[in-house]
Amino acid sequence: MRWRALLPLLAAGVALAQGPENVLIVVNRASPVSVRIGEYYRARRGIPQANVCIIDARADETTTRREYNETIAAPVAACLKSRRLEEKILYIATTLGVPLRIDGGGGRDGDQAAVDSELALLYEDLHGVRHEVRGALSNPFFGMRDAPFGHPRFPMYLVCRLAAYDFEEVKGMIDRALVARNRGRVVIDLNADDNDPGNEWLRNTALLLPKERVVFDHTKEVLYGQRGVIGYAAWGSNDSNRKRRFLGFEWLPGAIVTEFVSTDGRTFVRPPDSWNFTSWKDRAHWFADSPQGLSADYIHEGATGASGHVAEPFLRLTPRPDFLLPAYLSGRTLAESYYLAIPALSWQNIVIGDPLCRLK
Asked: For a designed S-S bond to 313, which of 75, 136, 288, 348 qualifies (C-beta 3.0 to 4.6 A apart)?
């Protein structure tokens, strides 16, 4: 289906546009930056005070499964139930300072996961359907190009994280979301392996978007220094030809990013300015237990949203750019666009950005 053919169908989703009353903000009392971000976002978006849920969790990025259940899932569930918000809330915005990942076993059947991906299933849990914690679970909203998001058809919450390297960067991200406009170009950069399924998804993305709005590269060269960028999809540090940590793009307000990188959402701790991603063999130069690039670098450079992974997701469970970018340019919110592109929940995926951000 061509991008232009999607517009009438996606208009239904835009017509049912969600607003501040549909967002729950999760703030960790133990983290001053979390509290500050929650206050700023609530004021800027006009979110009701009743939609702010304060938890008392450890301020570390990693938590245990038990701690997640007791200090994050349970109090968020209590906020929703006690305030009768289970159905009204569609989006949950976690904040920098809320734990990022749940520790556990890795691999396809492991129980480690991103906190945000677990919270997405809290709707089912509240309705008596306790989900399995081992392995990835199918996302019911995945690939639903033509359906507006809502309950009960889609029994989940769309969870995004208001996070970056510090408060000022999160503030900038929120401010940019409020002035996002539907202009600029989408940059799509393949790697050198033409047979990789990820490259096929990138090619499909280019075909689904208006030709005049696409910068498409299928060579071994890496695109740097692009101007007027509203969307970006590539292989990031997994492209062996990419040598620079920062792309040097001019990111427009509302610009979003997705990459096929296994651990790009592993931390929001700022690396040294001298750090650059490296190889799995070069352990001496890893940062936060990985040599790979970081999604937070894109927010630092001026993007408004990005996807990431707290641990190995495996390629087939990374966001599909051919769902994400056409949806976003067609008027979907940032949260809807990312979640209809993410195949699985209770998994390693995170979405960084204001869930209500929309190109106007």
From this structure: 348
